[in-house]
Amino acid sequence: MEDGKPVWAPHPADGFQLGTIVDIGADSLTIEPLKHGKTFVAAINQVFPAEDDVNKQVEDNCSLMYLNEATLLNNVRVRYSKDKIYTFVANILIAVNPYYDIPKLYTPETIKQYRGRSLGTLPPHVYAIADKAYRDMKVLKMSQSIIVSGESGAGKTENTKFVLRYLTSSYGTGQDIDERIVEANPLLEAFGNAKTVRNNNSSRFGKFVEIHFNEKNAVVGGFVSHYLLEKSRICRQSHEERNYHIFYRLCAGATEDIRQKFHLGSPDTFRYLNRGCTRFFASKDTDKQILQNRKSPEHMKLGPLKDPLLDDHGDFNRMCVAMKKIGLDDTEKLDLFRVVAGVLHLGNIDFEEAGSTSGGCAIKNQSSQTLEHCAELLGLDEEDLRVSLTTRVMLTTAGGAKGTVIKVPLKVEQANNARDALAKAVYSRLFDHVVTRVNQCFPFDSSSNFIGVLDIAGFEYFEHNSFEQFCINYCNEKLQQFFNERILKEEQELYQKEGLGVNEVHYVDNQDCIDLVEAKLVGILDILDEENRLPQPSDQHFTDTVHNKHKDHFRLTVPRKSKLAVHRNVRDDEGFIVRHFAGAVCYETTKFVEKNNDALHMSLECLVSESKDRFVRELFENSNNSKDVKQKAGKLSFISVGNKFKMQLNILLDKLRSTGSSFIRCIKPNLKMISHQFEGAQILSQLQCSGMVSVLDLMQGGFPSRAPFHELYNMYQKYMPPKLTRLDPRLFCKALFKALGLDENDYKFGLTRVFFRPGKFAEFDQIMKSDPDHLAELVKKVNKWLIHSRWKKVQWCALSVIKCKQLLFIIR
Ligand SMILES: Nc1ncnc2c1ncn2[C@@H]1O[C@H](COP(=O)(O)OP(=O)(O)OP(=O)(O)O)[C@@H](O)[C@H]1O
After folding, report:
1. Which CATH number applies to 244-344?
2. Measured between alpha carbons, how far is 414 from 392 in angstroms, rounded to an integer?
3. 199 CB less than 6 Å from ligand 1?
4. CATH topology (fold) of 705-811
5. pLDDT tens for residues 256-303?
6. ipTM, 2 decimals?
């Protein structure tokens, strides 16, 4: 950075602002903003050199002279203002959510344009990544994966859908299977998506969608794996949020016949819906199609929720069509709806103290009809359901009559928990079933390779972070490691391909953070499991153990060390801070123990797995603990959520490691979810969380800026006399570099481009644009070098001829 040249300095709302350095301190700089405003002081490591033309935008950030987080943000900003939402950083695609349909961006014609075209030959696009994956699969005969990440509402699911549509329409067989892969989405979204404050259509589960190809590289089928459905939402949502879409779609769109059969009412009549938002999504017109008696008072008062892509009544019908298309018959459809209705009724069962000496509770009289509906819909015996919700079965294990079954009465709060646990178990099994069923509708006998698209929540931190964030961030920590491995590998491969003869790129590994979470016995997940197995597990004891076992761990500390006041109020035994690659997160550990346990208590497990209804019974058939329910009845069994996730993740990562990979980083431009608004600071934080900034760091360890010879030639030919511009671009560049006497450690000549060490491209540019006297001197030097190198070439040729002649003479 130089005196008088513009720099990017931190700005609270925009991320960075342009300014000039007016004073230099020991580790800080005083900056004068270019736009009006007072001078301010910024830490030296937060001030970055700016490009000369800050309105310039490039398709690949690596062709910028200064590759840093500020120039990256600025490039994305300038492009976004021109509706260019996609940008490359080397082979990584950044996708900013436009929150409106950009004309012609995803048309069939655009799909055609990208078919078979190499990365970089057309503007950055999600189709370019999809096609690269396909071509790599074909050429390398190796499966591929595309990892789509970003925070909620950033556009992961939409981009995933674009990839799937691109692949099926470009490389499908034109048969039913292609359509089925695309049609599976509405069904998955109905059961796994919900309105949240961040996104009206938020996927509350992670998924890896594989499209399988035969030996001729045509689509033959698909397979979906899913991760971590958010279960807490089934029973409770915050005020402005909703439960899963299916509940509202059923209430709004079901035929009168279904409505009566399943005893459905308006959303406000169900506890599992009425603590959140009870309005339907509808347009002015479709709102009229929803009968009055299906609308909640809140809906009547405030009108429908509006979203261009969502409409509960219409979506119900579309979902029914999609079900048909993917091969679900009417019986199966009704089975699904019946269980959804059953869950709703279950939530309406109320308990009160029994008033007996047992200290237990009973189902309120007012709930008797609900109990009846619930039992009917889930195929349970009403009395058995009553008993299972209000008592817990225990087997005596010691003393007197060993193995005697005793019924322990539950208190009101325990019964409420049991009811909610049952609802969560039934719904999440139903969701598993939906995914299994979806998978059955695009079967394949054999496949040569697949392209998998991973759509999973990115790194997240809120004011209050719980077990869900802990799992998601652990997952992102693993994906980040994979990302680093791959980017590093790609960089090294590029250096090799370009013949640079170097492969030194250094970066900070995050294995220590991964170990902190998943190491055997001492990792946080194992400590938590250990706690769950104790007779009286407690969140505090778990938290204390974590702190004790990792007293001096660099990645772990106590909440009071947080920079944020809210976290400093959290006691040492109520939380811990993990220093993730993307920043420190304070986790509050209340309910960690409960959330880590997927097991129903035994009476409930027995109840549902012996349901009279085949569909419900089958939902629980494959459960881990149904086989030996009776033997285990003495203990509260424990099924670890954390370790199941760890296992799934490790399988996923093994799979990813065995494939070639591409990355799409989705960015949410603003919190209001509107078009044409770029909130710089927000976006910068997402770039940091998605690992993009650390990728820049990683690249800084090598040769981050790169410019093709022809580009350099075009940039500088105007400064050179015609005699020199007649040279071919490669020789032209070589002559310049040699003449300038640049340090050979600062740049490398590849086959197609020049690679620069951090900041060296700019230095070079500066010399080129220096004053005319200096330039004249430079031209002289270039000429001299050319003559010198040509002379050397002539000498070498002459010598070779002489040597050949001598050789011939000897042979003769
Ligand atoms: N490329 C796009 N063009 C137009 N609108 C888009 C695009 N990408 C996203 N959107 C809009 O943004 C909304 C949120 O996108 P999406 O559901 O894909 O986010 P997400 O990252 O999957 O969020 P979550 O993690 O909550 O599921 C979409 O419903 C759509 O309205």
Report:
1. 1.10.10.820
2. 10
3. yes
4. 1.20.5
5. 999 999 999 999 999 999 999 999 999 999 999 999 999 999 999 999
6. 0.99
Q: Is the pLDDT of residue 197 over 60?
A: yes
Under CATH, which number does the domain 60-232+656-701 receive?
3.40.850.10
Sheet bearing 556-557, strands edge to edge = 556-557, 575-580, 583-588
For the segment 147-193, what is each residue's pLDDT rounded down to a tens digit? 999 999 999 999 999 999 999 999 988 777 778 878 888 999 999 99
**For a pocket test of ligand 1, which of 102, 104, 158, 672 has the largest count of ligand atoms closer than 8 A to its C-beta?**
158
DSSP symbol at 24? E
The strand ranges marked E within 309-354 are 351-353
C-alpha distance across the termini of the chain, in Å: 66
pTM: 0.86
Span 540-586, pLDDT tens digits: 999 999 999 999 999 999 999 888 888 899 999 999 999 998 889 99
Instruction: List, for residues 394-427, the tens digit of each pLDDT value.
Output: 776 655 555 677 888 999 999 999 999 999 999 9
Chain segment 23-55, per-residue pLDDT in tens: 999 899 999 999 888 999 999 999 999 998 999
Set 75, 91, 157, 603: catalytic member = 157
Question: Any catalytic annotation for residue 153?
Answer: yes
DSSP 153-177: TSSHHHHHHHHHHHHHHHHS-SSHH
Mean pLDDT of 80-90: 95
Q: Which atom of ligand 1 is nearest to the CA of 95?
A: 1
The DSSP secondary structure of 634-702, one letter per residue, reads TS----BHHHHHHHHHHHHHHHHHTSEEEEEEEE---TT--TT---HHHHHHHHHHTTHHHHHHHHHTS
* In the predicted structure, residue 625 carries a pLDDT above the cut 70: no
CATH for the stretch 1-50:
2.30.30.360
- Residue 458 is among the residues annotated as catalytic for this protein: yes
Decide if domain 467-596+647-654 falls under CATH 3.40.50.10190. no
Residue 623: what pLDDT?
57
Better-scored residue on pLDDT, 706 or 126: 126
CA distance 193 to 249: 12
Is any ligand 1 atom within 6 A of the Cβ of residue 458?
A: no
Cβ(768)–Cβ(719) below 8 Å? yes
List phi, psi (to 5°) of 140.
-85, -5
For residues 194 and 241, the answer to whether their CB atoms sit within 8 Å is yes
Query: What gap in Å lies between CA 38 and CA 31, rounded to an integer?
Result: 9
Domain residue extents for the chain: 1-50, 60-232+656-701, 244-344, 354-436+600-634, 467-596+647-654, 705-811
Indicate whether residue 188 lines ligand 1 (CB < 6 A): no
Q: Is 152 a catalytic residue?
A: yes
Residue nearest to atom 18 of ligand 1 (CA): 155
State the closest ligand 1 atom to the C-alpha of 198, by its place in the atom list counted from 1: 26
Q: Whose CA is nearest to atom 3 of ligand 1?
A: 101
Q: What is the mean pLDDT of residues 597-616?
A: 91
Q: Quick one: which H or E segment has residue 742?
A: none
Atom of ligand 1 nearest to the CA of 307: 31
C-alpha 337, offset from chain centre: 30
Q: Which of 452, 458, 486 is nearest to 156 (CA)?
A: 458
pLDDT at residue 467 greater than cutoff 70: yes
Q: Give the separation between CA 583 and CA 113, rounded to whole angstroms.
A: 40
Q: Which pLDDT value is given to residue 563?
A: 85
Quickly count helices (H) and strands (E) in the chain.
33, 24
